[in-house]
Write a structure and sequence with these properties.
single chain, Transferase(Phosphotransferase), domain 1, 3-stranded antiparallel β-sheet
Length: 205
């Protein structure tokens, strides 16, 4: 017996058959990709087991660190339930958490650039404490489309970049958000460009 300490992600199973099947499929998908991915910023998978009521995913235990620590090795990707191996030009399946869905994902023709949009939503939330596209309920956020004339907030709402929530942010931070949340995916930052944006390099340099 080793003295190593691990973390366990415990997930309750769904009770209804249809929800249970889809949910189990997502959990197994997460295990599949965690077990084959290897990177210093991806949490290490150790083991998996289940019982009648729960799934248990055994992972490396991440040490705590201060929020001001700029070492990127301390940042770990944890959730990969919707990960997908890309072997085609476009993806067409509508999936993802409502607030993070990109405009092109709503149109069901998207690329990995949708992940950059989702990153923009995450950074926006971290810096302002709210989502860029709130909506009063999930259907309004995701798809509010009647006879192809009404589209949801993600496709139409303009962000007021001069709002008070941005007053304490640097010009570089706001520029970073704007370029991540660019509706035209061809003009949106790539992962490489995002990593080399002045706001990022000033934080980790």
């Amino acid at each position: 017996m080793t003295k190593e300490v691990y973390a366990v992600k415990i997930i309750k199973k769904k009770k209804t058959p249809k929800k249970s099947y889809n949910f189990e499929k997502m959990v197994k998908n997460e295990i599949k990709y965690l077990s084959i991915m290897s990177h210093e910023n991806i949490i290490k998978f150790k083991d998996f087991f289940e019982d009648k009521n729960k799934f248990y995913i055994v992972l490396e235990k991440c040490r705590k660190f201060l929020s001001k620590n700029k070492n990127t090795k301390n940042i770990k990707l944890l959730d990969s339930g919707m990960a997908k191996r890309v072997n085609c030009e476009y993806l067409t399946e509508l999936c993802g958490s409502p607030h993070y869905i990109s405009p092109e994902l709503i149109r069901k023709k998207y690329t990995m650039s949708s992940d950059i949009w989702a990153l923009g939503v995450m950074v926006f939330f971290m810096l302002t404490g709210k989502y860029p596209f709130e909506g009063k309920n999930t259907p309004k956020v995701v798809v509010l489309q009647l006879k192809h004339t009404k589209l949801d907030e993600i496709l139409n709402k303009n962000i007021n970049w001069k709002g008070k929530e941005f007053s304490s942010l640097s010009i570089e931070a706001v520029d970073f958000l704007k370029k991540l949340l660019e509706r035209n995916e061809k003009k949106r930052l790539t992962a490489y460009q995002a990593l080399h944006h002045p706001w990022i390099t000033s934080q980790v340099g």
